[in-house]
Write a structure and sequence with these properties.
The strands form 4 sheets. This protein has a 7-stranded mixed sheet. The chain is α+β, with helices and mostly antiparallel strands. Helix content is about 55%, strand content about 10%. Helix 8 packs parallel to helix 10 and helix 17 (about 325-335) runs antiparallel to helix 18 (about 340-355). It is elongated, with a radius of gyration of 29 Å. It has 25 helices and 13 strands. The relative contact order is 0.05.
Length: about 500
Amino acid sequence: MSSSLEVLLRQATGRLAPILPLLTELGRAFGEDGHALALVGGPVRDAFLGRESLDLDLTTSARPDDTERLLAAWGDATWDMGREFGTIGARRGSTIVEVTTYRADAYDGVTRKPVVAFGDDLSDDLIRRDFTINAMALRLPDLDFVDPHGGLADLAARRLRTPGPAEVSFGDDPLRMMRACRFAGQLGFDVADDARTAMTEMAASLEIVSAERVREEFSKLMLAPDPVPGLRLLVETGLADVMLPEVSGMRLTVDEHKRHKDVYEHSLTVLQQAIALEGPPNGPVDSVPGPDLVLRLAALLHDIGKPSTRRFDSGGGVTFHHHEVVGAKMTTKRLRALRYDKETVKAVSRLVELHLRFHGYGTGEWTDSAVRRYVTDAGDLLQRLHRLTRADCTTRNRRKAERLSRTYDSLEERIETLMEAEELKKVRPELDGNEIGEILGIRPGPVLGRAYKHLLAVRLDQGVIGPDAARAELLRWWSEQPESEDAAALDEAPGSPPQE
């Protein structure tokens, strides 16, 4: 072993020092039972990079039944949800490990489901891994370093390369192409030319991967320190055409006459600026602690409605009327296709819909009622909307940027003043649903819901007017409703006489 490698290895093992006693003890237990055990993949890579690794993945020659028996003797608890794939998990104190039997899988190339085959050799297991930087191992308990594919050299070169031919690796699991994009964002690595070529030629094969797996990999990319290099790679290789075509579509609005911004480049810039406005990871909720998936998705997707709404007017200008409304619908459709949960879909789509609202503020012409509506429409998303709106300013005109920033400062100050005076987060009509029903003599239903919304609008427009004035306004509104609606409401009313 060269002296430089010895130094790097000492540094890496030093970073693993807090967990090494437990791992070496586990290695001895497997060895005494006749099995090999090695720390592999991410934790080895991260030890060399000086990054904290939350996952402790190990690989072994033992079969799952033997692994489970040995882990049960070593740890406080075990689980076998991954038994089908040779993986048994265990916990000892706060340390969690997952031990997987050497694998030598084959894939059917259609469903991307592996035909699980257990192997007998560490080298065979390492060559089936996604990238050389994840194909390094430390044998336990002796800490012998195993690097048959030059992963350490690739780490030093900040390069992503596959252990075997790239087309074979990506053919085994097309999701590895997205993983390359994720590592580009997480680690700032470049993808080797042969791997990039294979990604471009094989992008369509991503279609056979489940939406759930694609979503998880995409989310990991979006939560990376700088997702932009990975997003560029997704678009440039054609992978985005398969799983996120709306982002690729934004490139279609590039205007050679420079009559509007490059929407694609603008969106990537907005994403980076939104990330810069996130709060510290453990900060208060109002600081939008980073990394925040909802804010980042909204920043990336806020202008996806522009390609389909772009129109050139007779004066040579360009418009994107209602692109925020169209974009919100497109966002909902795409995030549902990626199987995001309902709360995430709703939040991101709402931010996309609201991202232009501030531009109606002018230089402060909004009334207090308009400010109240801005707050109540944003709801729990207000702090994210603040950051998205600020990030959406990408003008190179310094004076214009400073003016927009000052104007938004004034809006936030007005919001704070109103919130202190009126507790806007708790804005409700001055009459509740029971009181409205009693005054109008109707049961809960669509008509009562409309009455409630009317009083809420009055509350937002006029502020606190008092229960007597609210009652009078409710009766005035009721008197203007069509007779057919009055009759329908009476049908709902408890104890109302039959209609003749």
